[in-house]
Amino acid sequence: MDVIELLPRLHLLRFPVGQAYLWRDGDDLTLVDAGPAGAGECVAASAGTLGRVRRVVLTHFHEDHVGGAQEVAALTGAEVVAQTLEAPVVRGEVPGPPPAFEDWERPLHADAVRLLPQGGFDRPARVTEVSDGDVLDFGGGARVVHAPGHTDGSLGLHLPRHGVLFTGDAVAASPVDGSVMLGVFNVDRDRAVGSFGRLAGLDTEVACFGHGDPVTGGAGEALRASARTYGAVG
Q1: ∠156-162-166 over CA atoms, to 5°?
Q2: What residues contact residue 92 under an 8 Å CB cut-off, 6+ apart?
Q3: Nearest-CA neighbor of 3 among 45, 99, 13?
Q4: DSSP string of the chain, one letter each residue
Q5: For labelling alongside 64, which of 89, 172, 200, 209 has CA 20 to 30 A away?
Q6: Are 220 and 202 in contact (CB under 8 A)?
Q7: pLDDT tens profile 92-133
Q8: Residue 19: closest CA among 212, 178, 179
């Protein structure tokens, strides 16, 4: 796992598949996504050099984002947070719906699956549920933005005071040229495009994606320019 400082308060944690982020308020840390199964010990150790993880906010239920959540919670005592539609899947009470793959996405998904740990993982029994418009107590007030389409309960987090946006997999950066793009492996592409447009409309300077390099300057315009190509914004 690589740890990269993006801002004095913001660190990127990069895994073989996907990434997570640490936001720091003094000694209190918020982890946005938790990496795959087996990542928890490394995440907790890295976080421990910066402060104490108080909460883990999950953008959606896919294994590369939720696999390490219970490990981190057990090691740090952190609260696990997910959107109310996503929480039953995160807890393992119901299965999550599979993506509606486009043909070109299938080999990409197969490659990603091969890089993930095989077998199950411990799921958090307790999940705090949040909904669109809720404000979480970090980053000067982190607003929950329901962003369905990648999954039904996908969420983004917007920190208006700092101009930072966490998109989960609703938005991504191309591994080829770093350009901003619609996230892949969606359950409903039309809804995903609509969510892309909503996220692009926020006042954002730094955009943090679940996959691909973050945009660390002028992110709002970069998102809007890309969203226009999908017809997500006028």
Answers
A1: 20
A2: 123
A3: 13
A4: -EEEEEETTEEEEE-SS-EEEEEEETTEEEEE---STT-HHHHHHHHHTT-EEEEEE-S---HHHHTTHHHHHHHH-PEEEEETTTHHHHTTSSPPPPP---TTHHHHHHHHHHHSPPS-----S--EEE-TT-EESSTT-EEEEE-TTSSTT-EEEEETTTTEEEEETSEEE-TTT--EEE-SS-S-HHHHHHHHHHHHTS--SEEEESSSPPB-SSHHHHHHHHHHHTTS--
A5: 200
A6: yes
A7: 999 999 999 999 999 999 999 898 998 888 999 999 999 999
A8: 212
**CB 178 within 8 Å of CB 212:** yes
- The length of the chain in residues reads 234
Note the pLDDT tens digit of each residue in 178-228: 999 999 999 999 999 999 999 999 999 999 999 999 999 999 999 999 999
Residue with tokens 């793959």: 101
Measured CA to CA, the distance from residue 40 to residue 75 in angstroms comes to 8
Tokens of 33: 């996504």
